[in-house]
Design brief:
The protein is of the alpha/beta class. Helix content is 39%, strand content 14%. It has one domain: TIM Barrel. Strands 4, 5, 6, 7, 8, 9, 10 and 11 form an 8-stranded mixed β-sheet that branches.
Length: 357
């Protein structure tokens, strides 16, 4: 990349800081990398007109990215496979970085590789040396950057020897192409296997984070049960995707009769299943607390997740600047111990007879 001239307004900056633009940061696992409390999930970004199944087009995505940079929401999460394996989420980010080169140093950029991309042979997927190297090169091209701050394996390859996968990551880190490594969709046994592998090989390929599904109503996805506690016990940041349960933990679904086409759970046909009587009663209790404390339900949800021991940043997606702004505020909320207890009680309380009726 071309050298960027220094900005005189930045000549006098603190030696160290724990926040940026008012957004608190937290360390990622046992690494030196620090990330914003609230990140930005970009799985919705793409080119809907192409049929890639994205929900946020280029123009609106740029507005969200501009606002994220202004609000200190600087941990951006994407993947090569998002939106039908099109790579379009990465392309949106790449075009934004090209237009905003000064912001690259401010953004912690995470992407994921594993699933088939750029071809259909068996060698176009997985965590083999060849696919890792080819996939990373393609990601860099789409993202229009020289370095990936955090590279995930999107899934765990059970066929490729772990030594092959990890030594390839070690090579990429040594070359400065990848800075930190993480995995997604991992079980406890797989986390344990990766930690054993990194101890034998090199600290450069150690796992600093695991990204699994998690929300405060449903907890972990049962396929990966126990990974959150394992991560907390072993210095690995746990990053929960779908922290708002695909929109369920927002004010949007407090009145489901007002939902219709355009609402994600309606469009995906899961609203009736997801909005069970138990979930409805929990949402009402949480919403009551949020109203009492001057928050939105989503803000209560995200701030509570951030209070959990061992929890890393949260990375909700959004489809508008208004949603992003609301999420960003959640990252600055420090819940009092009494509030945390009330939230825990609301989550655990059985459904009352009045609620059942």
């Amino acid at each position: 990349m071309d050298m960027i001239e220094p900005d005189p307004s930045l000549y006098r900056v603190p030696y160290m800081t724990n926040e940026y633009l008012g957004m608190p940061y937290r360390q990622l696992g046992n690494s030196g990398l620090r990330v914003s409390n609230i990140g930005l999930g970009t799985y919705k970004f793409g080119f809907p007109e192409t049929g890639d199944n994205s929900r946020v087009g280029e123009k609106d995505a740029y507005k969200i990215l501009d606002a994220a940079a202004e609000l200190g929401v600087t941990f951006w999460d994407t993947a090569n496979r998002y939106n039908e394996g099109s790579g379009n989420s990465e392309r949106i980010l790449g075009r934004w970085f090209k237009a905003n080169p000064r912001e690259r140093r401010n953004i912690v950029l995470a992407t994921k590789i594993f699933g088939g991309m750029d071809g259909r042979t068996p060698n176009h997927g997985g965590a083999s040396r060849g696919n890792i190297l080819d996939s990373v090169d393609a990601c860099l091209s789409r993202l229009q950057v020289d370095t990936i701050d955090l590279l995930y394996f999107h899934r765990i390859d059970t066929l490729t020897p772990i030594e092959e996968s990890l030594t390839t990551i070690e090579d990429l880190v040594s070359r400065g192409i990848v800075r930190y490594f993480a995995i997604s969709g991992a079980t406890v046994s797989q986390l344990r296997m990766y930690q054993a592998g990194e101890q034998q090989l090199s600290p450069r390929c150690r796992v600093v984070a695991v990204q699994n599904q998690y929300d405060i109503i449903n907890g972990e996805n049962t396929d990966w049960a126990g990974a959150y506690q394992y991560a907390a016990d072993h210095g690995i940041s746990f990053i929960g995707f779908f922290p708002l349960a695909r929109g369920l933990l927002t004010d949007r679904y407090l009145s489901p009769d007002r939902c219709g086409a355009g609402d994600r759970l309606v469009d995906e046909g899961t609203l009736q299943e997801d909005l069970s009587p138990r979930v409805t009663s929990i949402l009402k209790r949480l919403a009551g607390l949020a109203q009492e404390w001057g928050m939105e339900l989503s803000q209560l949800t995200l701030s509570y997740m951030l209070s959990l021991p061992g929890m890393g940043p949260v990375i909700p997606g959004c489809s508008s600047v208004a949603q992003l702004t609301s999420n960003a505020r959640a990252g600055t909320i420090q819940l009092e111990p009494g509030q945390i207890v009330k939230i825990q009680t609301a989550l655990e309380a059985p459904q009352s007879s009045e609620e059942r009726n």
